[in-house]
């Protein structure tokens, strides 16, 4: 495994940690004060920092470090995680994600933004509340923090009359802060035995420290016990170090970067200008109480392990049996103990909370593996083959089997059931919860809310609804667009909302659920709703509809999906370039989905998207055209009808129109347009499929007969052939033959007179 | 395997010979993936006349070219006795409809005679040489040019 692979794994883990971080912060934002949530958030940032440090990603490390410091204040209850604090933290999580992406893809990040956030985070860590509006009791964070802020801002003029550049934490980002006057730090370094257990060595740390400047070390051996009572693996020494350096405190702390969990570390600025020097060692410039970390869960579980070891050792001595055997005994004992504890717990109905916690732990511990997507796809392909093969087999058995009751038939039925089940389970492998996309949306909402000065709350529901990975990947873009629209256009400004008697904070609700084999995603805002008068006027101005057109409310609402339509009065940075909703609709349709809008004036709008659960299969109507079997995507079909002779009207030389409920719709002979037959078929002999194309126009597609409706597996034509105009893809039917899937949009475009001929001159080749 | 290896080192090569419309052709055996019987193909719209359509090859969509028509000869009327040579052409896999596969030949480069310059332009674009085997004439064809997709680039 080379470095790049390890790095790739690190970034994959980063993604998980970032998701964990964001969901944790959002939980805190919703008022969750569970210490475990804070811990989880802290751990996420810490893991990213640790990994980034190993790969030398300095930007990431330095930002994560400041973030971590602030989170630690929350963890140790020195900082109340109120809304304002969390706002900064959520933004920091965004920046952390940006930095991670930049580190992976080599892009750049908004440095001004990250620097600004570092400032804000440090201000929080120093006990300064983010916005004056907050009335939270500042008592808790204040006392330890007060002396901290002091040394930095107070300009010190030394004897040369030179005013030094004040050392501020903002500058530490640059690895070598420029022109910092050498200052003396008093460092107390007290390692714990864990430090040595993890292979760290105090000597090496001290040596690193000595490289920073002039250093004098005093070893504190007060705790060293008498030889008899000494534990050879324990740590007894502490060091008091006086270091004169121009590198600043961060440089000192970074020496202890990977040891900070396992030691007590105090770094204090010494010197006349500093009030706190020499009085008491626990003086902390930054509220960065590392000793608190030891109360963490891993530590306590480690203690439990130690106990177990002790027991094991004692037993080993007593029984004089092999240590291994004893250890397994201990394990067994532990298991029995746990089992009895569990039975006790189930016996006592009051401990349901404990049970719930256990269940939660169990669900969190579900083992997972990472698998290449290619492998899964290959499996899905093979299973698709299996299904087709099984169908072919059944068909030939039915054809050859005259008595119809043979055991072969029963066996085949079982086989059919099994293959279905295999197909479903394999499809489930690709299925992923929509959670990551939804989480990304919360960031979009924050950004847009910031830009527009609106106050927005994003509520997500059903984020564990599962859908095919490819659908998820392609969902993010249209969803982003819609969220932007909802916040920018949908929600009113806080003033207007208050005037309308609403909560000044707008709500955008994102919901996902399964409904009849599809995933339905709803985006609802509680804004003003669609201004139908304005939309109508705009449509008239843009020549989309006639001035006297009689449109239902729903039809007006759906006008916003037209290309080049935007009702924003002024074109904003966020949305309103008129490429909005039609692009959204097209990308949803490209996914085989449909989108609808319903709006209530004053109460908001609801966008409903219905998408297939997978892109590998498609619901299609199997039709016959000129003895060829074709598949028409079901999503394109509005209705099917049997044309009567009286409804067919000739128009021009060869055009025909069909009247459907008194409106005329052009009739398109699929067989003719695909060149399957030389002359147009008689519409009365066939079936008309009323389809709606991307351009919004309706066409009646003439086919000879409908065979039925079926789910088909999509196969690429381009892989071994070329793109064929009018054909979207191919599929394989139950009889093993290839059927072509119609590209309805291309057919409709062709019927408008655009050429359906391929650009290359195939005729010349023949 | 060792046999092939020996031939490669001596400049020899293995070819698959097949019959189309009473004439014999051969292609490099390395480009042939498999040989299978004819199954009815699904017609493609707007396809040139030699494109018989596509068939299902274990889940992949395989285009079938009527080799006879492709060479400008009489279009074949496929029956169950016809054979499809599944060949790899660059990154794609295509099926060639031929009358029958006749032989596997092991020849050295010196056995391959240059294409006579009386051949038409059209045939010359496929032919890479001719072989005289037991009094028969077998034309060595290059499949890169067979497929319409490549035609555009060549034109």
Tell me about this structure.
The complex is a heterodimer of chains A (766) and B (155). With 766 residues, chain A is of the alpha+beta class. Chain A folds into 5 domains: 145 residues, HPT domain (Four Helix Bundle (Hemerythrin (Met), subunit A), Up-down Bundle), CATH 1.20.120.160; 135 residues, Alpha-Beta Plaits (2-Layer Sandwich); 60 residues; 179 residues, 2-Layer Sandwich (Heat Shock Protein 90), CATH 3.30.565; 149 residues, SH3 type barrels. Helices cover 44% and strands 19% of the residues of chain A. A 6-stranded mixed β-sheet of chain A has the order 14-18-19-17-16-15. By secondary structure, chain B is mostly beta strands. Chain B has a single domain, classed as Beta Barrel (OB fold (Dihydrolipoamide Acetyltransferase, E2P)). Helices cover 15% and strands 47% of the residues of chain B. In chain B, the strands form 2 sheets. A 6-stranded mixed β-sheet of chain B has the order 8-1-2-11-10-9. A 5-stranded mixed β-sheet of chain B has the order 3-6-7-5-4. The radius of gyration of chain B is 16 Å and the shape is globular. The N terminus and C terminus of chain B are likely disordered. Classes of the chains: A alpha+beta (766), B mainly beta (155). The interface between A and B is medium-sized, with 38 and 32 residues.
């Amino acid at each position: 495994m080379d470095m790049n692979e390890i790095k790739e794994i690190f970034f994959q883990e980063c993604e998980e940690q970032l998701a964990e971080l964001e969901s944790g912060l959002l939980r805190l934002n919703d008022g969750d004060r569970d210490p475990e949530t804070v811990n989880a958030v802290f751990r996420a940032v810490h893991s990213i920092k640790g990994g980034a440090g190993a790969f030398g990603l300095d930007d990431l490390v330095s930002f994560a470090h400041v973030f971590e410091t602030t989170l630690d204040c929350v963890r140790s209850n020195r900082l109340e995680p109120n809304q304002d604090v969390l706002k900064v933290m959520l933004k920091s999580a965004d920046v952390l994600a940006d930095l991670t992406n930049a580190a992976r893809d080599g892009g750049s990040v908004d440095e001004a933004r990250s620097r600004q956030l570092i400032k804000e985070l440090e201000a929080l860590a120093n006990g300064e509340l983010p916005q004056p509006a907050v009335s939270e009791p500042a008592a808790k964070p204040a006392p330890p923090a007060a002396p901290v802020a002091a040394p930095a801002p107070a300009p010190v003029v030394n004897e040369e009359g030179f005013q030094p550049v004040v050392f501020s934490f903002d500058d530490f980002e640059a690895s070598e802060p420029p022109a910092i006057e050498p200052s003396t730090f008093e460092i107390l370094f007290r390692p714990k035995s864990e430090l040595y257990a993890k292979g760290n060595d105090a000597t090496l740390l001290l040596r690193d420290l000595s490289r920073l400047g002039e250093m004098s070390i005093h070893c504190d051996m007060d705790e060293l016990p008498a030889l008899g009572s000494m534990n050879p693996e324990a740590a007894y020494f502490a060091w008091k170090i006086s270091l004169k350096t121009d590198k600043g405190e961060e440089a000192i702390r970074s020496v202890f970067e990977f040891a900070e969990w396992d030691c007590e570390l105090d770094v204090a600025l010494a010197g006349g200008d500093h009030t706190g020097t020499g009085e008491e060692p626990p003086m902390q410039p930054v509220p960065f109480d590392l000793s608190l970390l030891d109360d963490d869960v891993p530590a306590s579980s480690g203690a439990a392990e130690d106990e177990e070891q002790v027991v094991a050792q004692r037993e080993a001595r007593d029984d004089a049996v092999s240590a291994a055997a004893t250890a397994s005994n201990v394990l067994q004992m532990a298991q029995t103990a746990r089992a009895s504890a569990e039975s006790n717990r189930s016996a006592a109905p009051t401990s349901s909370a404990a049970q719930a916690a256990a269940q939660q732990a169990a669900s969190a511990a579900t083992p997972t593996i990472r698998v290449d997507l290619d492998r899964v796809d290959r499996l899905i392909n093979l299973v698709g083959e299996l299904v087709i093969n099984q169908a072919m087999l059944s068909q030939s058995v039915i054809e050859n089997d005259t008595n119809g009751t043979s055991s072969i038939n029963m066996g085949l039925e079982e086989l059919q059931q099994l293959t279905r089940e295999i197909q479903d389970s394999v499809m489930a492998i690709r299925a992923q919860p929509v959670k990551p996309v939804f989480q990304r949306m919360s960031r979009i909402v924050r950004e847009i809310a910031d830009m527009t000065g609106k106050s927005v709350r994003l509520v997500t529901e059903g984020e564990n609804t599962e859908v095919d990975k490819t659908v998820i990947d392609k969902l993010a873009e249209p969803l982003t667009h819609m969220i932007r629209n909802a916040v920018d256009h949908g929600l009113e400004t806080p003033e207007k909302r208050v005037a309308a008697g609403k909560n000044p904070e707008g709500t955008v609700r994102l919901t996902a659920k399964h409904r009849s084999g599809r995933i339905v995603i709803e985006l609802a805002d509680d804004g003003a709703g669609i201004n139908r008068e304005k939309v109508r006027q705009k449509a008239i101005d843009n020549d989309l509809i006639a001035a006297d057109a009689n449109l239902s409310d729903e039809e007006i609402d759906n006008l916003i999906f037209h290309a080049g339509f935007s009702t924003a009065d002024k074109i904003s940075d966020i949305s309103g370039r008129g490429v909005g909703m039609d692009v959204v609709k097209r990308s949803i349709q490209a996914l085989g989905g449909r989108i609808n809008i319903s709006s209530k004036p004053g109460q908001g709008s609801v966008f409903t998207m219905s998408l297939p659960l997978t892109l590998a299969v498609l619901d299609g109507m199997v039709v016959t055209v000129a003895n060829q079997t074709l598949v028409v995507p079901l999503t394109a079909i509005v209705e099917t009808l049997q044309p009567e002779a009286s409804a067919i009207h000739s128009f021009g030389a060869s055009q025909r129109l069909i009247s459907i409920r008194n409106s005329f719709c052009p009739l398109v002979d699929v067989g003719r347009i695909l060149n399957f037959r030389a002359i147009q078929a008689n519409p009365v002999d066939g079936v008309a499929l009323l389809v709606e194309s991307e351009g919004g126009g309706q066409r009646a597609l003439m086919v000879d007969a409908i065979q039925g409706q079926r789910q088909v597996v999509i196969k690429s034509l381009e892989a071994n052939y070329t793109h064929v105009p009018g054909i979207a893809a191919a599929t394989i039917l139950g009889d093993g033959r290839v059927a072509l899937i119609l590209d309805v949009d291309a057919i409709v475009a062709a019927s408008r007179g655009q050429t359906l001929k391929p650009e290359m001159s195939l005729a010349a080749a023949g | 395997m060792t046999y092939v290896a020996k031939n490669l080192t001596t400049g020899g090569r293995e070819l698959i010979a097949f019959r189309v419309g009473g004439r014999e052709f051969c292609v490099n055996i390395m480009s042939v993936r498999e040989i299978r019987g004819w199954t009815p193909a699904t017609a493609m719209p707007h396809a040139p006349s030699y494109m018989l359509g596509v068939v299902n090859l274990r889940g992949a969509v395989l285009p079938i070219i009527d080799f006879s028509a492709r060479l400008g000869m009489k279009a074949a009327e496929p029956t169950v006795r016809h054979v499809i040579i599944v060949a790899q052409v660059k990154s794609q896999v295509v099926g060639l409809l031929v009358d029958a596969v006749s032989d596997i030949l092991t020849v050295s480069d010196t056995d391959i005679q240059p294409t006579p310059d009386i051949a038409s332009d059209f045939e010359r674009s496929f032919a890479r040489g001719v072989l005289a085997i037991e009094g028969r004439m077998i034309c060595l064809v290059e499949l890169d040019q067979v497929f319409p997709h490549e035609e555009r680039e060549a034109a």
